[in-house]
Amino acid sequence: MKLLVPFKLDEKYMKIGREVIGDENIIWFPETGDADILLIRGNNFPKDRNFRFIQAVSAGIDHINLESIPEETLVASNAGAYSVSVAEHAIAFMLERSKNISTFEYETRSGIYNPRPTKLLYGKTLGIIGYGGIGSRTAEIAKSFGMRIISIARSHRDSNSDLYLSLEELDTLLRQSDYILISVPLTNKTFGLIGRRQLELIKKDSTIINVARAEIVKKEELLEFLDKNKEVYYLTDVWWGEPGMDGSKRENVVITPHIAGGLSGEIMEFSYKCAFENIKRYMEGKEPRNLVRRDEGLFINREKIGI
After folding, report:
1. Is pLDDT above 80 for 89?
2. Is residue 139 part of a domain?
3. How far apart are CA 47 and CA 224, in angstroms?
4. Strand partners, 152
């Protein structure tokens, strides 16, 4: 079997591919040729050829139009490849909110010395919507802070979550959580999952953290809710229509520019290693990890793809 890589890669990532799969089994850009497997980074890939297996570099695949790929072609995401980085980012958001570090730093640097009480993570409840790689890794770290964990999980289970719920029990999670982490993939089942009705259930000083996709939350309903409930904060690494930031200038909104997955070499090296290893599984006749469920597919034509 041959793998086609239809985009330019840095030598350090090519080296990983050679070590995992073997250079003789890879057709590197700009070369082309007959291949059974395709590695893709966005939605711009050869659509006039039939591949048996397509592996995405990204964890999310909502930017990939599955309707342009034959039904018989297996498609796999790279879920889990960015879990450590995104989980650390989620924890950083939680610490930012509880300790108010950026506000204190700005005030102090501006000559304003105004100590105010901060909050503990210890003893608080973290509700995790999506207990995959990111959610479970965040729970592991949060548990060391002494937090109680409630999780909505499809299949993964471990000892870090104190309570597991189904998606149909989302209301229970929202009512009980001090911090709500959105780390579920964007699918046709999670699009617009959080709206006015769900927001009305949360505690009036709670914090919502989104490290998944903006479209899981209904924008106008969230912004209206935040304007009426100033003690609720929305901390997010994603925004609707990014890089546009329309509606983001609110005191109870904190945004980072879709970098939770990390832009550093060490993170991307691990990402490509995961992708190449999954391709190797397929080449060896094993079922690839993270196969995409087409019945849950959702395509968003994005300017900024992210991970």
Report:
1. yes
2. yes
3. 41
4. 129, 165
